[in-house]
């Protein structure tokens, strides 16, 4: 579904993702793990087209922009914004309603159903500023349920989230997998990855290993990932690998 | 009792210049209120201020070419304001300097240029005219201009309302479903400049932004959804125009500052009394609920 060919993405000429090749198969459920600064979020942004590709290419096959749902790290959203929970969820209809389309009763009831699926049905009239971090993450999940996307990208979705919400949201992710949607999630908890994610990409700028989770998360591979130098070398010579 | 009622309506029934001023305030308030709310939501409250100053050199050049002509000054002001907005936007996009810094830089250049032009070629009375406006001298042409800008603003906002809201609530989401929202941002800045130009003849470049920001800031204490905040802000702006005109009539005060100070009073009262996070609600002990 998503094919990476010798992909390099740079910030200021320093590679954050370095000569990465591989594929996220259609219907796969993949975790991306790796140390800080390993290029995990960068890879998701590059797939979304939010960052320019330096060399190599990303093949989106037949995916359109509206086929992809992307949940970035939460910090980018203004949680004091005067908007109700239901209105946030209704944004999930964007592909169908755009900037001028009507929110019909049927669309609203589907939004309420999505809220019910994350156990927030009674919150629909509440302003989002009154929600906890966990509740707000549930709201964003409800919005993604409406987006009905074929490819779902999740960036550090469980940071600062309580255990119960984490478990509930993982259930939603599993359901997506059963529905044959492709899910790629950046995660930190290796136990979680081993339990819930059949496939893993271990990233340390370069790909250390990519495939079945048991094969990827070996002590040897993790050791190699840990040894990635976190700081950039200011005097690094140009990369010699030919594109 | 009758005297009071008379005081509230008589000035407008008796004098046509007061009626014109009232209609101008009505139109200004309806356009500026919603624009101000969106500015505060985008954390651009001070950008409105910057743009209002940026209008000055254009208006001054218009004044020099055509004298006290509304058309020339409005076109000049619009061009100058838009130029500053575009330059600041371009610098931010291509150098990564923050928008508030580039806006500040360009509006200061623009303001100094404006003062220079007026002071070398006009008198200080002209400068005062441009800076503080004369709402009591609003003629039919400027009424039509103000009303057209208010209508255009409301129609445009209605068309791009959802986009603007999503772009400031969750820009990442809009980018992921729709591509870049910068075009709407630009369209919105054009609306801001247009409304400042509308306000500028009536209230002056310095005061025009007051009818935009003060009602918007006050409205946040009374409502908690964008549409309701917007409606409250427009209401406060219109009310401030009406009360300010009365004040200026009965006490022989300059109308621009009277209107803005009325809006300022509404803001101060809202801080104390507003039922969303107002001081009274915050600090008055109230029984809490069971769940």
Give a brief rundown of this model.
Chain A is of the alpha/beta class and 243 residues long. Chain A has nine helices and nine strands. At the A-B interface, β5 of A face α8 and α9 of B.
Structural account:
The complex is a heterodimer of chains A (243) and B (291). With 243 residues, chain A is an alpha/beta fold. Chain A folds into two domains: 1-63 and 150-243, Rossmann fold; 79-145, no CATH class. Chain A has helices spanning 40-48, 85-90, 94-97, 105-117, 133-147, 163-178, 190-196, 213-216, 219-226, and strands spanning 2-11, 14-24, 29-33, 55-59, 68-71, 151-155, 182-186, 199-204, 206-212. In chain A, the strands form two sheets. A six-stranded mixed β-sheet of chain A has the order 5-6-7-3-8-9, with helices on both faces. Chain A has a three-stranded antiparallel β-sheet with strand order 2-1-4, covered by helices on one side. The longest helix of chain A has 16 residues, at 163-178. Chain B is built from 15 helices and no strands. The termini of chain B are far apart. Helices cover 83% and strands 0% of the residues of chain B. The A-B interface holds A 48, 50, 65-66, 68-70, 72, 76-78, 81-84, 87-88, 91, 94-95, 98-100, 127, 147 and B 41, 159-163, 165-166, 168-173, 175-179, 220, 223-226, 229.
For the biggest sheet of chain A, the summary is: 6 strands, mixed
Shape of chain B: globular
Report how far the terminal alpha carbons of chain B are from each other.
48 Å
Q: Please report the total strand number of chain B as a whole number.
A: 0
Query: How much strand content do the residues of chain B show?
Result: under 5%
Structurally, how many domains make up the residues of chain B?
A: 1
State the helicity of chain A in percent bands.
Answer: 25-40%
Q: What is the CATH topology descriptor of the largest domain in chain A?
A: Rossmann fold
Strand content of chain A: 15-25%
Broad structural category of chain A: alpha/beta
Main pleated-sheet profile of chain B: none
User: Which sequence of SSEs, written as H and E, runs from N to C of chain A?
Assistant: EEEHEEHHHHEHEHEEHH
